[in-house]
Structures are given as C-alpha cells and as structure tokens.
Amino acid sequence: MKKLKRFLALALAATMTFSLAACGGKDSDSSKGNKSGVKIGFITLHDENSTYDKNFLDAAKAACEATGAEAVFKTNISEGEDCYDAAADLADGGCDIVFADSFGHEDYMIKAAKEFPDVQFCHATGTKAHTEKLANYHNAFATIYEGRYLAGVVAGLKLNEMIDSGKITADQAKIGYVGAYTYAEVISGYTAFFLGARSICESATMEVTFTGSWYDETAEKTAAQALIDDKCVLISQHADSMGAPTACENAGIPNVSYNGSTASACPETFLVSSKIDWAPYFEYIIGQVADKKDIDTDWTGNLSTGSVKLSEFGKSVAEGTDKVVAETQEKLESGDLHVFELEQFTVGGAKLADDYKADVDTDADYTADTVVVKDGYYSESEFRSAPYFDVQIDGIKFLGDPKF
Amino acid sequence: MKFHISKRDALPWQKSLFVHVVAILLAVGLIAVLCMTLTGQDPLSVFESIFSGAFGTTRRSWVTLQELSIMLIIALALTPAFKMQFWNIGGEGQVLIGSLTAASCMITLGDKLPNAAVIIIMIIASIAAGAFWGFVPALFKALWNTNETLSTLMMNYIATQLVAFFTIVWEVPKGSGKIGIINSDTMAGWLPQIVNQHFLPIVVALLCTASLFVYLKYTKHGYEITVVGESQNTARYVGIKVEKVVIRTMLLSGGMCGLAGLLLTGGINHTVTTTIAGGMGFTAVMVSWLAKFNPITMVFTSLLIVFMDRGASEVATSCGLNESFSDIMTGIILFFIIGCEFFIRYKINRTKKSGKEA
Q1: Using CB atoms, which residue from A21, A28, A359 is nearest to B174?
Q2: Beta carbons of A183 and B278 less than 8 Å apart
Q3: CB-based contact B173 A22, cutoff 8 Å
Q4: Closest CA to A120 of A91, A149, A141, A154
Q5: pLDDT score recorded for residue B353
Q6: Spatial distance between the Cα atoms of B25 and B22, rounded to a whole number of angstroms
Q7: Fewest CB atoms less than 10 Å from the CB: which of A62, A191, B109, B224?
Q8: Residues of chain B numbered 289-328 and touching chain A (CB < 8 Å)
Q9: Best residue of B24, B26, B44 to probe chain A, by most A CBs closer than 10 Å
Q10: Distance CA A260, CA A310 (A)
Q11: Total structural domains in chain B?
Q12: Are A107 and B184 in contact (CB under 8 A)?
C-alpha cells in the first residue's frame, strides 16, 4: 500500500507539472485582424480527407483570409440531428453566418434557422430556400454544368484526335460515365458533359452507370472498369473517390476528372477537371453580412463570378484544346451559347416541348411544377440554384437498368 | 532478482477503484506527453477543449446526456446476451431495423391515423422489429448451433441494405438518396417532447438501467442467464432449457436495440439513414465489456466514451487537430483501463534468491 501511495503521488505530481507547463488556451488565430467583424461557422460532412469537403474547406480558408472574417470549423457532422446541434452550437457561439456543405444537412439547417432568426444560415446544394421563405435561410450552387460542358469539349477534341490518328473509328467514339445517384445534379452533369463532347465530335455516344454512393472507391473503380470492358474509350465521373481515375490510369484510358486535378496520381491519362470554387460565394455572404445587406435566397455562381473553374490541362490533351475551350467559354459567358439548347438534343426522338415542366419546388410526390424552357433552351439553375435537369436525352445509354 | 505472476483473490472494491484511477491518470499523462511531443499542442488546452465540447454550454451538456442515453440503452441491450456468452455483435443492425420500422410507420401512417395511434404502433413495431432481428440468430443457434458472432454480424448488413433500399423508395427529392426530416409540417409520429427534445431518451435510459439491473440480479430469468453463461451443461443439469433462455434473452436484447432505434428516428433525427446508428452498435460492445456487464457501471463507461467522442469534435474545431487525434486519446485511455485489469486479477511477486539457484 505504501508503494502505491508513492506511485500515486508521483502520478499526481506529473499531471500537475503538465498542467503548469500548459498556460493560456489557444485563441482562434483569425480573430486578429478581423476587418469585417464577421464570424462564420462551417459545417462539413467529412474532413479534408474527402475531396468534396476539402474543396469547401480550402475555399472557406481562402475567403476568410481575404476578408479577415473569423472562421470556426465543425467537421464530420452527419446528416441528421447532429447537424442541427452543430448549427445551434455555432449560433450560440456568436457566429453571424452558419454554412453547411452537404445536401442531407438541409432540413436540420432550416430547423436551426427557424430558431435563430438573427443568424444567417447558408446551405450549398439545397433546394428548399425558395419555398421555405425564411429571411435568414439561403441556398447556393454554381452553374457547374457549364464547367462540365467545357470539360466535354476537351473530351470531344481528344476523341477527334483518336479518330484522326486511326486509333478508333468514328462510331467507336463511346464515352463512359460513372455517376453517383440518378439525381438531377448528376443527370445535369453528364448530359452537359456529353453535349460538350458531341458539339466537337458528332459521332460521340455515351454510356452511364451509377454506384449509389457519393464516395465508394471500390464501386467507382469497378464501374469504370465495366465501362472500359464495354468498349468506352474515354471516361469521366461524378463521384468523389479516386476509383475511376485509377481504373483509367491502369487501363490507359483518357479520364476527365471532377472537383480537382488528378494529374499527379494519373499523369498519363488525366485530361482536365472541372470544379466549383466556393470562395466567391463565401466572400459574397461575408461581405453582405458585414454591410448589413440581405443575402440572395438562391445564389448561383458561374464562370464570370469565378465559381466554375477548369483545372490546367493534362499532358495528353489534343493539340489546340486551350484555344477551343477559351472560345467556348467566352460564348457561354456572353450568353451566345447555352448548354441545353433544345436544338442540340432530342428526348425519345422528339424535341423537348416549349412548356416542359420540372420538379423545382421539392415535394414528396416529385410534382413537375415549373416551366423551365426559355428562349429555346432548358434554363438550368435559374429557378433555383440547385440543378433540376431531369430528362434522358437520346445518345446516352445506361449500363444495367437504373430507376429514374 | 526474479518475478513471478500469480492469480490473486478478488480485490476489494476500494483497491480496484484505486487501480483504475491510477490507470486513467497514467493514460492522461501519456496523452499529455504525446500532445506536446508530436503536435506541439499545449495538452491543457486539448483537455480543456474536450471538456468544453462535452459540457461547455447548457446545450452541449444536454446533447451529451442524450447521446450518453442512446449509447447506454444499446450497451444495456447487449449485456444480457453477453452474460450468457452469446456474442451479439448485431446491435447496429437491430438499432437500424428499429429505426427503419419507426420511419416507415411515420411515412405510411402519418397522415392516416391520429398521432397517438401512430406513436403507439411505432413503439410496438420498432421493438418487435429489433426483437425479430435478435430472434433470427438466436433461433439458428438454438436449432443448428450456428455461430452467433457471424450470424448477428450478417444481420447488420441485411439491415443496412434494407435501409438503403427504402431510402430510394422514399427519397425526396427524386434521386437524391436522402429521406430528409419526415412529416416536418405535421410532426406526425414525432415522439412527444417532455421538458426539451433531449429529455425523453434520458428518462428511457434511466428506466432501462434500473430495470435491467433488477432483471439480471434479482429475477429467475437473470439467474438463468448467469447459469447458462457459466456453463450450459450445468444449466441443463439443473433443468434450465438453454435454447429457451437463449431465444428469450435475444428477444430482449434485440427489442431494446429496437427501442434505441425508435428513439433515434422518432425522438431525435426524425429521419432514417444507413448511418443513423453511427457505429454505436459496435462501440456498445466495448461499453458493456468495460463495465463488466454491470448496468450501473455502464452509465460511467458510456459516459467516458461519449465524453471523449463529444470532446473530439471540439478538439478538431478549437485546436486544429484532426478528429483522429481524439480517437488516439480514447484508444490510450481504453488501453490503460483494460491493461489495469491485469493488475487487478494477478499480482507480481518478487522471488527471493535462494542458494540452489545460485
């Protein structure tokens, strides 16, 4: 017993020494030099190990650096009551703005928004701000379909190069696409990518398969391989892991990536990547709050705001790609070109009706409620920021039998 | 000088408590050293963040208590099975199926029946679903002596896939793979809020703790569970129907997990996702073991785990450390606590030199 006492004394002494050595809690660095006086809390589904969340976290840090706003991060917040707890905790902690990055966070953000009317709640990818009509709840997205279209142009040029060099014949120009869910955001993405490619390579066709997960490396790799086995000569994907790019690098198939360059991991096959840069949005909301102005209910970033970006080109892109892409981008920015021109695609062999309606106001019955065709094109991301393109155009086929 | 190790008699509880406290202090000391040498972080601010994350504000304290309650209910649920040496590692699936059943009642009956009826049906259905998920492996064990570790684990995957399937059936908006808050306008099937939304799980957890304590310690059923756990042959010899006890106990175990699922969906999240149980079905195994299957001790072991987990996010937020660091901390603490069991069960004797050995 005596020995134990001596031992305990030692342990206590050690603990106390550590306690003394530790002095003064660490204050948040960014609070110094906070010119705007705005404090913003960020809620993310995972942490920087996920490419999707890293894209938000990097933009958040950049925007707070630029504006001097104080940032608080809550990572690994699941899409449930956890999100409400985190949002309420940030509001308790004096945040002027609370932002969440994942689609499933939306309902819980709305719940928090109702409880804290003086705090602004901003949510990326959500669909309900325009129907909830809360003064302090806002959705945001970007016209990423324009980025996909440009990436499609890069793919089309590559296909043409392959045809010209005799590697494939014109009717072998089949693109493969690995999608996550049969969700409007994904449909909008692959359709825009395909239209971009077909605007350059007329004989292009596409085959799409879905993994049923936003992040499943094995499933994405297997899906990409299945497309390659089915004679797809170029692959792109809308999912967050390195699965598809890796499968392409192994098989020597050109790949168009998403949400960040995969050039370092896949140097031989990487063509280009499109992504949303969230920094302009963060700077916008911080600015609005600092100036005591209202934030848009639905904010849609585009090529001009710097929200939609293409990465640098990979070394295997076709010659002259930069020039064609720059020209197309100019036309998109000026409004001379629209991605979803009705003239450019058919649905079931026919042109889409001028009064075609889509489900813009989210409801459990998926009611098509808003006419989305305008001046001869399907006007994506206009009636709300999140995509709602939901038609299956001719030229795109599916592996298996996905349910839409 | 030599040592040898010998088993010791049961240590009085004061001494055993003392050994545990020393173990935790040593763990904390090691964490502090790691903090400073590996990350250059000041350990006190890390400890401070952990505490603040769990109890820093009234809201955080309530949420901590709520999470503690759910963890506790699941750990309690697994305990009777473990006591009879039936390795139920299917808590995750039993919780999930309870959640899914509650959600399906909310979605399909929400606008058809009065709220009270919906809630009563939800309670019965969720507990029954969880019980069924426990019953299947128990029946296989009783009939064909299948390995319950495997079958309960497999049932987890079935439950996850069922949730994934119904998520697609009920998703809003189309294709999103998310159900979202169910009946957010009518609040049909939402369990009533007493005091605040965190209070109900706490009450349920307290009731579960007390009743399970009594059940295991003072009832015939509890005694039978202990005997079956000690030796099935002894149990048979004294006339206990082992198969009956196994099935009955797994119905209880699964049913309580189903109850936890009901609280998660009907009382807290108001939705169902494949990750709603968040691995608690597995963590609860550890919680139950650490408490040596004692329901009262389990309150403290769940508190330890939930406290560290809640602290984790705050560490990530305020110290700029990844949440993995708090997993490392939890790991160190558990290592020391489990390690100290050695000193409780065995003693180290110094062997005196004797002439012969020289």
Answers
A1: A359
A2: no
A3: no
A4: A91
A5: 61
A6: 5
A7: A62
A8: 313, 316-319, 322-323
A9: B44
A10: 9
A11: 1
A12: yes
Predicted local distance difference test score (pLDDT) of residue B101? 98
* Residue A19's pLDDT band (cuts 50, 70, 90): very low
The residues, ordered by sequence, that sit 6+ positions from B141 with a Cβ below 8 Å of its Cβ are: B86, B148, B151, B246
> How far is Cα A372 from Cα A359, in angstroms, rounded to an integer?
9
Say which DSSP state A268 is in. Answer: T
Would you say residue B231 lies in a domain?
Answer: yes
Residue-range definition of the domain harbouring residue B163: 72-291
Mean local confidence (pLDDT), B25-31: 90
d(CA A128, CA A137): 9
Q: What average pLDDT does range B170-196 have in this prediction?
A: 91
pLDDT of residue A32: 44
* Inter-chain residue contact B269 with A106, CB threshold 8 Å: no
| Digit-coded pLDDT (tens) for B141-151 | 999 999 999 99
Residue B12 contacts A, CB cutoff 8 Å: no
Chain B closest-CA separation from residue A106 CA (Å): 8
Q: From CA A172, how far away is CA A191, in angstroms rounded?
A: 19
Cα–Cα distance measured from residue B26 to residue B24, given in angstroms and rounded to the nearest whole number: 5
Position B351 scores a pLDDT of 77
Please determine, for residue A366, whether its predicted confidence score (pLDDT) is greater than 60: yes
Nearest-CA residue of chain B relative to A24? B45
The reply to whether B1 falls in a domain is no
The reported pLDDT for the residue numbered A6 is 54
Q: What is the pLDDT of residues B256-290, one digit of tens each?
A: 999 999 999 999 999 999 999 999 999 999 999 99
Q: Determine the average pLDDT of the residues in B220-244.
A: 94
Instruction: Look over chain B and give the mean of its residue pLDDT values, rounded to a whole number.
Output: 91
Domains of chain A: 36-143+279-289+295-300 (3.40.50.2300), 145-275+313-398 (3.40.50.2300)
Whether A83 and B276 have beta carbons less than 8 Å apart is answered as: no
Residues 6+ apart with CB under 8 A from A385: A139, A140, A141, A142, A298, A299, A300
Does the model's pTM come out above 0.90? no
Interface pTM, i.e. ipTM: 0.88
> Closest Cα to residue A43, out of A2, A69, A12, A81?
A81
Q: Which residues contact A90 (CB under 8 A, 6 or more apart)?
A: A41, A43, A72, A74, A98
In a domain, residue B12? The reply is: no
Buried b (16+ CB within 10 A) or exposed e, A109-137: bbbbbeebeebbbbbbbbbbbbebeeebb
Please name the residue of chain A whose CA is at the shortest distance from the CA of residue B107: A364
Task: Tell me the average pLDDT across A149-171.
Answer: 96
Tokens matching residue B333: 């603490």
Residue reference for tokens 């086929």: A397
Residue A302, pLDDT above cutoff 80: yes
At B322-338, the pLDDT tens digits run 777 777 888 898 899 88
The C-alpha torsion from B179 through B67 and A40 to A130, rounded to 10°, is 20
B123 within a domain of the structure (yes/no):
yes
